[in-house]
Amino acid sequence: MGRSKFRLIFGVVLVAVAIGLIVYGITSMRRPPPVVPGQQATAAPSQDLVSIVVASRDIGRGEKIEAAKATILKVQGPAPVGSLSDPRSAVGAVALVAIPAGQIVLQNSILAPGDTTKPGLSVLIPDGMRAVALRVNDEVAVGNFLRADDLVDIQLVLSNSALGPAEEGGNPERRESRVVLQALKVLSVGEALTEETGDKAIRMQNITVAATPEQALVLAVAKQSGVFYLALRNPIDNKEEPVKPVRLEDLVGAARPQPVPSDSSAALPVPAVVAPRQIEVILGSNTGKQAVP
C-alpha cells in the first residue's frame, strides 16, 4: 500500500517537471535575443505617410471631375509614380479613362484643367482624327462585346446594285464581301436601346470610332452602299494587311465567267486560203500556165 502511494507521488512529480520544461522552452523561444554590451539595437526604418488623390466616386470616361469626386488617401511612402498629392490638381480635369471609386487618379489618366478643357467625346479624339458614329445591332457589333479602346475592322457586303452590270454568263444574284478599313479604334460605345421593328424587338446602339479624314469618307460611302459588319481585333494587333475580296461564287464553288477579249477582230474566223486556178497557154511551140481569177 505504501509502495503504490510512493509510485503515484513520483509520477505526479515527473509530470510537473515535464510541464515546467515545456513552458520554459516556449518562453525562451519568444524571448528577444540579448543585447551585446556596447552594441545598440537597431530599429526598423519607419516610412512617413504620403497623400495621394483617389476617386471618392465613380468617374466616367470623358467626365469633368468635380470636387466631390476626388479625395485624399494616406499611404506609406513613396507615392506611386504619376500620382497627385493635391485634389485641386484633379478638380476641373477631364477623365481620359473610367476611374472607379477608390482608384488612384494618375496624371496620364486625366486632361489637365484649363479654360479650354471641356467634358465630352471631343477630348478623346486623337490629333488629326475624326469621330464617326455607326448605328449597329448586336450582330454587327460583335454580340455587344465591344468596349472603348477596342480595335475593329470594317467589313462591307456589296449587293447586286452596288457591283454594277452583271458579267455575261455570270450569276445575276451576286454578293461580294471586302474589308474596307482596318484597325479602327473604338472611342465610345453608346447605351443599347431596343427598337420595335414589326413584331421583332432589335437592340440598337451607336459605336463611335476614330478615323482619318479619308477613312471617314470611306465610311460614309460604305454605310450607303451595302451592309457592314465590325470584326474585333486583339488589342495589340494593329497591322494592316491586304485581304482578298470574297464573292458568292467562291462560296458555292461556281466558276467565274471569263472576260470577253476587247479586240473584236480576234473573234472573227480566219478565211481559208484558196489556190488560184491555172490554165495552159500554147503559143506556137511555146507552152505555159497562167493563173486566172
Structural class: alpha+beta
Could you tell me the number of beta strands? 13
Question: What gap, in angstroms, lies between the N and C termini?
Answer: 165 Å
What is the share of helical residues? 10-25%
**What spatial form do the alpha-carbon principal axes imply?**
elongated
Task: Note the beta-strand portion.
Answer: 25-35%
The run of helices and strands is: HEEEEEEEEEHEEHEE
> How would you sum up the major sheet?
7 strands, antiparallel
Number of helices: 3
Low-confidence stretches are none
Round the Cα radius of gyration to an integer and report it: 44 Å
Description of the structure:
This protein has 293 residues and is α+β, with helices and mostly antiparallel strands. Among the domains are: 68 residues, Antifreeze-like/N-acetylneuraminic acid synthase C-terminal domain (Type Iii Antifreeze Protein Isoform Hplc 12), CATH 3.90.1210.10; 127 residues, no CATH class. The strands form four sheets. Strands 5, 6, 7, 8, 9, 10 and 11 form a seven-stranded antiparallel sheet that branches. This is Flp pilus assembly protein CpaB. It holds the Pfam family RcpC. Keywords: Membrane, Transmembrane, Transmembrane helix. InterPro entries: Pilus_assmbl_Flp-typ_CpaB, RcpC_dom, SAF.
